[in-house]
Amino acid sequence: MLGRNAVALSLASLLQGAQGFYLPGVNPYSFAEGEAVKLKVNKMTSQKTLLPVDYYRLPFCQPEGGPKMDHENLGEFLAGDRIESSPYRLNMKVDMFCEQLCITNLGRGEQKGVSPNKMVRAIRKNYHNNWIVDNIPAASKVEDDSTVTTRYWQGFPVGFIATDTKKAYVHNHVNIEIQYHAVETEPNKARIVRFTVEPFSIKHDFEASADDDDDATEGTDKPFKVADIQNPIESCNPKLPSKEHTRYEMVYARGREPQPASGRVLFTYDVIWTENKELHWASRWDVYLSMDNAIPAKVHWLSIANSLVIVIVLSAMIAAILVRNLRRDFSRYNRLATDEEKAEDLEEFGWKLVHADVFRPPSFSPLLLAVCCGTGAQLLCMAVLTIVFSAMGFLSPANRGALIMAQLLLYVLMGSVAGYVTARFYKTFKGKSWQKATAAVAFGFPGMAFAMFIIMNIVALSQGSSDAVPATTMVVLLVLWFGISLPLVFFGAYFGYKQDAIEFPVNTSSIPRQIPDQPWFMGIPFTLLVGGILPFGACFVELYFILASVWMDQYYYVFAFLFLVFAILIITCAEITVLFCYFQLCGENYHWWWRSFTTAGSTGLYVFLYSFVYFKQLEANQLATYVLYFGYMGMASFALFLMTGFVGVTTCLVFNKTIFGSIKID
Q1: Does residue 342 register a pLDDT over 60?
Q2: Beta strand 264-275 pairing with 173-182
Q3: Whole-angstrom Cα distance, residue 20 to residue 280?
Q4: Cα–Cα distance for residue pair 547/7, rounded to 1 Å
Q5: Helix/strand/coil for 102
Q6: pTM (predicted TM-score)
Q7: Which end of the chain is more exposed for a tag (fewer CB within 10 A), N or C?
Q8: C-beta separation of 614 from 546 below 8 A
Q9: d(CA 630, CA 634)
Q10: To which H or E segment does residue 460 belong?
Q11: Rounded alpha-carbon distances, angstroms, from residue 298 to 150, 287, 294, 301, 614
Q12: Quick one: which H or E segment has residue 630?
C-alpha cells in the first residue's frame, strides 16, 4: 500500500534501462530436465477497484493440502502481494497436453434479480490473475483471427464479458508457454527466461470420475480430479494418434462455446516448453521493464526537451532580470552618496530598505515552518538515497518489495536529518520550546501517514482486499517508528541545538518596518498559481507514466529520464522561488519565509489536482476506490509539497544572505 507513492530514480548510465544485468542478491537457478518447476499465484488486481484480492478468494482449484503462503518480506506485505502455491504441475522441458486440473463449482448462474456469484463479480470488475514462475511474472497472450498480442504487465484476465449476451465467461484453460536457455557452464541444465500465459474459455461437457464429489458446493474443489470429456477439442482428445497443443482455431471452431462463469467447471491447461538461444537469463527482465517498448523512448526524450525549455526560459528570465538588476542595485547601494542625495534622502530604495527586517523570524508559527522544513529535508534525503540504490540495481522489480522497504527504512534512518534541520531553523527563529518542536517533527508527518494507513487498512479490510496488512506488520511499523525513527529525531535535534544559530550578514531591528500595499500579482493566490505551474509543467509527462506504474500495474524503470526530470523539477522550484522572492523584497515585503515555502510547495497542489484528471482513466465505480486513490494521492502530494517547500526556503535563504552580504549597510 505504501508503495503506491514510491519515487524511484537512477543514474544517467542507465539511459536505456537495465540491459543485461545481474541483480545483486538475485541468483539464477538452473533446472535439470524433468525437475519440478513451481508455478505460484499472486494477488488478483483490477483497474476498476484498485483493491487487490487473494487468488483463492475465488473458487479456483487448490493444491493438495491447501495453498501454502510464500515467505514474504515487509515490502511485499505493504504492497499487498500474497504469493501462494498452486496445483499446476510443471516439469522442466516436459510438455503437457490438455492436462486436467480439477472440477470446481463456481456457483449459481446469472439471472436477473439474483446476486451474481463471486467469479462473475470478479470478471465484471475486470480482475486479472498474476502468476509467477521462477520469479518472473506471467505475460498475457491474446489472440484473434488476424493478430497475436503479448502484454508484459497487468497479468491475464480471469474471464471476459461477451459483447452480444453481456454474460460473464471464465477462462478455464490456459496455455502455459515457457522459454528456457541452456546453461553453458552446467551441462543438461537450463534456466527459465520467459513465461507467457494464453487464456481460453472452453465449455467442456464432461462426466466426473468415480471419486468426484457430485454434491460439491460453491467454493469447494477436489484437486487433481480427472473427468471424461464428452466433446473434446483436438488437444483434449486422447483417441487421436498424435498430440497437439491447444490452438485458437480449436477453441473457436464452429459449434464450440465458451464456459459460463457458473456451475461445475473443468479446469485444464497445456504446458509448452521452447528453447530460446538468443535470450539469456541476465536479460530476461528487459522486456518487462521496457514493457516491450510499448512507450517509445522518444516520448521520454520529448518530455525532457519540454522540461529543458521551461528551465532555459526561466533561467534566461532570471539572468535578464536578477543579474542585471542586482548588478545595478549593488553598484548603487555600494557607491558613496553625494551631498545632494544625502540631503534629499534618495540613497536607499528598493530591497535594501528592508535590510533590518529581512531576516526577522516568520510572523506566523516559526515552529510549524521549522517542522515543515525538517520533514521536507528528511523526504528529500530519502529520495536522493533511493536514487543511489536504484542505480545499483537493488530496487529492481525482480526484488519484490525492495523499493517499499528501502523507502521506509531510509525515511526512518533520515529522522536524524529531520531533527537536525528543525533544530537549526527553530534556534535561528529564536524559539524556546525545543522539546515541542522536536516532538512535532517526530510525530507530525509520520503520525499523519500512519493514520492514513490505518484508514486505508480499514477500507481494505471492509472490501476483503489483500491490501489489508496483518496486525504483526502494524507492530513492525510501530517498532520502526518508535524504536528507530523517534530516537534518531531527538538525536539529530540534540546536535542541531548544540550548533550556533544561522548567522546573517545584517542585524535585525527591534521594531518591524511597516509593509506598503502590495500589487495584486504579488499576492499569495497569484504566487501559488504561477509558482507551481512551471515546475509541474516540467514533470507532468513523466508523472503520467509514474501514476500508470502505481495504479495500473505497469512497470516504470527508465530511471535516467526520471533522474533528469527530478533534477529539473528541483532547479525549477529553486529558480521560480528566487524570482518571486526578489520581486517581493523590491516591494518592501520582508515576509518571505512562508511565501518561499508555499511558492515552491504549490507544485504538490498541482500534482493533487492532476490526480483528478488521471482518475478518469481508472474506470472506478465504488466508494472504497475513491477513498483509496485520493487518500494516497493526497498524502503523496503533501509529501511533495513539504519536499519542494524545503527547497524553496533553503534557496531563498542562501539568495538573501548572498545579496545582503554584498552591500554596505550604514
Answers
A1: no
A2: parallel
A3: 8
A4: 10
A5: strand
A6: 0.83
A7: C
A8: no
A9: 6
A10: helix 434-462
A11: 22, 17, 11, 5, 22
A12: helix 623-660
